[in-house]
Write a structure and sequence with these properties.
The chain is an alpha/beta fold. The chain has 19 helices and eight strands.
């Protein structure tokens, strides 16, 4: 397996929840794969990274090495599981244990039809007792924190009743942290994209959960676009999670270590990033992979800078050609003027 963590103790696994605020990059299906996470880790040393949601059945019956392996550089990293059968989720946790994840997270928020057909994701908001049973089973076999990522409610649910009920049940079952997407999910009539945009955000609902459970880690997600917004939320909750904003403009991660983890201020070494990604791409290609598997996650890096359009063109076209190698990354970086820095361009 790619990661040789040798297992993480509960104390070590809890470190990212016990040392101040947490900044996380959200789990996103088809986006936050191992190549994306490795790339993000080169920009921020401390951000908590999540896998794509992996279905418990797939881990039990599918290609485990492909689904679960990761580069040791990705720590701290959380595995997000999808499922609604406590026994299967427990078995998936057992199988994943040797890979050395720092956290196991249960998806109770994804609204897609594909997820609903498996009776998990956001539709589990309707059966909080099942969620509690799943968490209890996962906790029984996990040596690292087990957490839940949910919505404030679904369909016609009243979040004022549904969300506290869910939180109460999963905490009683032993959940170590709760991440809350501050929107309802509509299981019928809205696409996953629309479910990220149309239901109104209710950040105050999440804040009230923190007020009600002051000693429990409560993190917030949904509609957060900048690090300034993230800092504002941290006046009320313990953690903040960015999804597409972090993916589509990865340079935003360059300031995370300093602003949220007290790291010394530093100038991002973009040449070093280029060289690390070229070396990583070369190893991936040597193992039978394609450059595009990696380059597709890097396209948004230099948004707003002179040469960014050419950078995107090179990665989007040249990286897909047969035999494309790491030199494509070098050519793309050479097209960009990095002064002002990408982070400065994003905040301008």
């Amino acid at each position: 397996m790619a990661a040789q963590g040798g297992g993480i103790s509960l104390a070590e696994g809890k470190a990212h929840y016990s040392n101040g605020p947490v900044f996380a990059v959200a789990p996103m299906i088809d986006w936050t794969d191992r190549h994306c996470r490795y790339f993000h880790r080169q920009i921020s040393h401390n951000a908590l990274l999540y896998t794509e949601m992996v279905v418990a059945d797939a881990i039990i019956h599918g290609p485990r090495e492909r689904l679960l392996s990761f580069d040791a550089a990705e720590h701290p990293i959380a595995l997000q599981l999808g499922g609604s059968d406590p026994a299967k989720l427990a078995e998936a946790v057992r199988i994943a244990a040797p890979y050395g994840y720092d956290e196991i997270n249960l998806n109770v928020g994804c609204p897609s039809d594909r997820v609903q057909s498996g009776t998990f994701g956001a539709c589990l908001m309707l059966t909080p007792e099942v969620v509690a049973d799943c968490v209890r089973a996962m906790k029984a076999v996990s040596s690292v924190p087990v957490t839940v990522k949910c919505r404030i409610g679904v369909d016609e649910q009243d979040p004022e009743a549904a969300l506290p009920d869910l939180v109460t049940r999963v905490l009683d079952a032993g959940a170590d942290a709760i991440w809350i997407h501050a929107r309802k999910a509509w299981l019928k009539g809205l696409s996953p994209k629309e479910n990220r945009e149309i239901p109104p955000l209710d950040y105050s609902m999440v804040y009230r959960m923190k007020e009600r459970w002051p000693n429990v880690f409560i993190g917030i997600n949904g509609g957060i676009h900048t690090l300034d917004e993230a800092e504002s939320h941290l006046q009320h909750v313990d953690g903040v999670m960015l999804g597409r904003a972090a993916y589509q403009n990865a340079a935003i991660l360059a300031e995370v270590d300093e602003r949220f983890y007290g790291a010394p201020a530093r100038e991002m070494d973009w040449d070093a990033l280029r060289d690390r990604m070229m070396a990583y791409a070369a190893a991936h290609i040597d193992n039978g992979g394609r450059l595009q598997h990696i380059a597709r996650h890097m396209v948004g890096l230099f948004t707003g800078l002179p040469g960014a359009r050419r950078y995107r063109q090179i990665l989007s076209t040249d990286a897909t050609k047969p035999g494309a190698g790491p030199d494509v990354i070098a050519a793309a970086f050479a097209a960009v003027d990095v002064s002002p820095s990408p982070a400065e361009a994003l905040s301008a």
